[in-house]
Amino acid sequence: xxxxxxxxxxxxxxxxxxxxxxxxxxxxxxxxxxxxxxxxxxxxxxxxxxxxxxxxxxxxxxxxxxxxxxxxxxxxxxxxxxxxxxxxxxxxxxxxxxxxxxxxxxxxxxxxxxxxxxxxxxxxxxxxxxxxxxxxxxxxxxxxxxxxxxxxxxxxxxxxxxxxxxxxxxxxxxxxxxxxxxxxxxxxxxxxxxxxxxxxxxxxxxxxxxxxxxxxxxxxxxxxxxxxxxxxxxxxxxxxxxxxxxxxxxxxxxxxxxxxxxxxxxxxxxxxxxxxxxxxxxxxxxxxxxxxxxxxxxxxxxxxxxxxxxxxxxxxxxxxxxxxxxxxxxxxxxxxxxxxxxxxxxxxxxxxxxxxxxxxxxxxxxxxxxxxxxxxxxxxxxxxxxxxxxxxxxxxxxxxxxxxxxxxxxxxxxxxxxxxxxxxxxxxxxxxxxxxxxxxxxxxxxxxxxxxxxxxxxxxxxxxxxxxxxxxxxxxxxxxxxxxxxxxxxxxxxxxxxxxxxxxxxxxxxxxxxxxxxxxxxxxxxxxxxxxxxxxxxxxxxxxxxxxxxxxxxxxxxxxxxxxxxxxxxxxxxxxxxxxxxxxxxxxxxxxxxxxxxxxxxxxxxxxxxxxxxxxxxxxxxxxxxxxxxxxxxxxxxxxxxxxxxxxxxxxxxxxxxxxxxxxxxxxxxxxxxxxxxxxxxxxxxxxxxxxxxxxxxxxxxxxxxxxxxxxxxxxxxxxxxxxxxxxxxxxxxxxxxxxxxxxxxxxxxxxxxxxxxxxxxxxxxxxxxxxxxxxxxxxxxxxxxxxxxxxxxxxxxxxxxxxxxxxxxxxxxxxxxxxxxxxxxxxxxxxxxxxxxxxxxxxxxxxxxxxxxxxxxxxxx
Length: 862
Fold this sequence. Notes:
Layout: H1 2-13, H2 18-31, H3 49-71, H4 73-102, E1 113-120, E2 127-128, H5 132-141, E3 145-160, E4 163-173, H6 177-181, E5 187-188, E6 203-206, H7 208-215, E7 225-228, E8 231-238, E9 251-254, E10 271-276, H8 282-299, H9 301-304, E11 307-313, H10 320-353, H11 356-364, H12 369-405, H13 421-447, H14 451-456, H15 469-501, E12 511-517, H16 526-541, E13 546-552, E14 562-567, E15 580-586, H17 590-593, E16 600-601, E17 615-619, H18 620-626, E18 636-639, E19 648-655, E20 672-676, E21 685-692, H19 700-708, E22 717-721, H20 722-729, H21 731-765, H22 767-775, H23 780-810, H24 825-847, H25 855-859
Parallel strand pairs: 4-9, 6-8, 15-20, 17-19
Antiparallel strand pairs: 1-2, 1-10, 1-11, 3-4, 3-7, 3-10, 5-8, 6-9, 7-8, 12-21, 12-22, 13-21, 14-15, 14-18, 16-19, 17-20, 18-19
Helix pairs in contact: 1-2, 3-4, 3-12, 4-10, 4-12, 4-13, 5-8, 10-13, 10-15, 10-21, 12-13, 15-21, 15-23, 15-24, 21-23, 21-24, 23-24
């Protein structure tokens, strides 16, 4: 007996079906008494008869499903197309959300790379950069990271004998960043200890694209000398293809700092990147860094008061608003998928209603209810799989279209939208769940039909199956989800219309724009930078196609920085009481270039130079906010907080609001002022703007030559028209607006088709009833209203729920809307009217068939 037990165990462990092994075991036990019970020892891998029957039944159901697909080509085509559209949109949108939120950095153990940021515990601007001394203290006191680095991003002008000067994004970092990221150069080496000290040799790492495009992939690139921001650097390595950390950078330089030369709190300029140590979770790291920040706050109250520190996943840097928008988009496409599944469910209900006789016959012959439900679900799964294949193709096409939308404003390098294993698993899950969702109700309804009643009711081949209240609820759900999606699409459409028809107080047509970044080496102070701009302006104005030109620290619609100031004659208590407004530094031709008329006083002229009366031009909101009691002309303001060394600036003119807060900044005040470039504190960055008589981009080469005539190593970048500047500022509206419009239109079409199908089936079902009513004298209008009543009720319920969904879903969209409120009543009203009209039409067309029913035909048995 013991040997028999061991042999039974060996059979099970070897993979023999347990049911077969158990039957063999008891056959051997009783075989000595009843020899006929003895069985042959089962072989490994031999399927049991029950398993074989199950497998055979599955294949049989699949074959039958394929035959039904061929037998009902119209219905099958509609179901596959509906599944394909829903799965295609879902695949594309999930790929986008997956790339932005779930993929993460493309490095080994990238989930351990974190971002450390300082923040103000109170105030309007919670996030702030970290100071050098705080970084050094955190690095010395922390125990939760395997490496902690300070980084700061800046543009780098790259020049040399190998080609014309170019501008690239650059990252300045303390030593150890690439060890933190667990990435090493493709060729050469990374930074070593000591190269971040002020007296170290200047070295640089270049990106793969720069190596290929500028240096032709030269194998002897290591040791080459290049000029970066006016200083010679030696190339020590080339980073791998696709590496552009942290955004789309192509150059990496050591962050050379001297703590002794910086007063604590004066250089709040750095972000911190770290790698979590083994066994440390994010919450533990955050707790320790916050503890260190509190300790520094107590130790250095003058510089660190109210300053905390936070640790977050690096890929969570998009911000809560963007995350909410992406998840809203994902929820929207799942709504479209649900509508598609409901439509297929209604189609299958219609088909099931005419198959009840077939199913009843099978039941009468011994088929169990579970067996019938599984067969019908398998048929639905066949349709879903065919739709899934179509959907994958549509999803890829959608991703290509989305990629084209992001060309002007590409996402960070680590956000890629190619499908990966998550997307494939998601598609499989969505396809399967959609099949179950679409098939379970029709299968359940068909399987519960009364066999006796169905077999008895054969005179017209009809069925006892009737569409239930559940079907009506599904249609109402379709319209509710469609309503929410159409509201989102409507808000986007209205934003685009508002943007295109906006009466901006400045010209946007035929205006060339570009940026330059002077190097601190060649232009170390305000005077040298102002001199460069003064010499460049006449060279720009001398270009034949140019009608007017200007230089400034910012363009209209792109936003200007905030400046603290005081108004003469006013007294202020603490520092927080001093007013702030947006400040711009411009050349005298600024307002003329953008055709912005002066409302009061005058604009800047050639007489506004360094030794003349300091002047300022303010905009209309500034006047309403800070000079509400009279004319602003002759009034004075002064920069800073009780800065007695700053000069008082006299207001000489008032101009319209030129979107100094940014074209889509709903939170910031547009109040601002301008100072002439010869009197202002001008920085290294400047924007060039030139109004031409035709296509503005045709002067690109001339502008580049004008800049090179003063500095041959200075590139121009961000070359685009003023219209391009506005589109770039509104990139979120363009991208997400297109997505929500596609989803809204798809939802509307699917909901209309769904209601049409349900009403059409209802009319077919009630043909005999309508014939009786017509024979008894009921007017056509009464019959039409009777049939349409169900559709109207479903429509009203769907609209009521959909309006609530729209109110909730519109909140995250506010960040991308232009000049409209997320609860805009016009949009809600138009959506309600559109859905009502569509729903009534979808109900009326099939319902109108009742007026053409011949009572004799309807009442004649087949």
